[in-house]
Amino acid sequence: MRRNRSNLAVMLTAFAMIAVVSGCHKQVASKPAATQPPQPSAAPPVPAPASTPTRTATAAPPPAAPAESLEQLFQEHVKDAFFDYNKSDLRAQDRQALLADAEFLRSHPEVKFTLEGHCDERGSEEYNLGLGDRRASSAKRFLVDAGISESRIQTTSYGKEHPFCTEHDEACWKENRRAHAVMTP
């Protein structure tokens, strides 16, 4: 019986020592030794480059890109119709351009505009004013037939008074024979 008690005492002592040693081991593992320099637990944070702004929770979002104005959209989408020398009837490619214009204008029913008739420098002032008027009217009729309300369209003729190109050759004259759309308030 004594032996059982002494075996029990030895076992309890052994368990106590194991508990003490394992507790110390955990303590030693979690704390650096006094003779060793402390080891950093994580890498130090790397500062952001100076050119990259940092955002905070209270910073406002960047401003949205400004939307294009209706006038800018009009200028981008509504193209001119060009005419052959001494003519006011629409060519096939210019009908296509006016159909694209009509599509844009149908999607923006609030837009009103003026069709300006222009001519090249050849011919008298009186003749070119009449020809410019016929060109603007031809483009207007086409747009009305394509579904654009006639009340939205005005016409005017500048004849040869406001040329787009001022050279005196055929390449330049082609640019001046046109019906040009200008948005009106």
Please give a structural write-up:
The chain has helices at 2-30, 70-77, 92-107, 125-145, 170-176; strands spanning 81-82, 112-118, 153-159, 178-184. It is an alpha+beta fold and 185 residues long. It has a domain at 88-184: OmpA-like domain (60s Ribosomal Protein L30, Chain: A), CATH 3.30.1330. Strand 2, helix 4 (125-145) and strand 3 (153-159) form a beta-alpha-beta unit. The chain starts with a helix and ends with a strand.
Secondary structure class reads alpha+beta
Average pLDDT rating: 81
The strands making up the biggest β-sheet line up spatially as 1-4-2-3
Question: In CATH, what is the class of the domain at 88-184?
Answer: Alpha Beta
> Can you count the beta strands?
4
Number of discrete helical segments: 5
Give the distance, in angstroms, between the N- and C-terminal Cα atoms: 116 Å
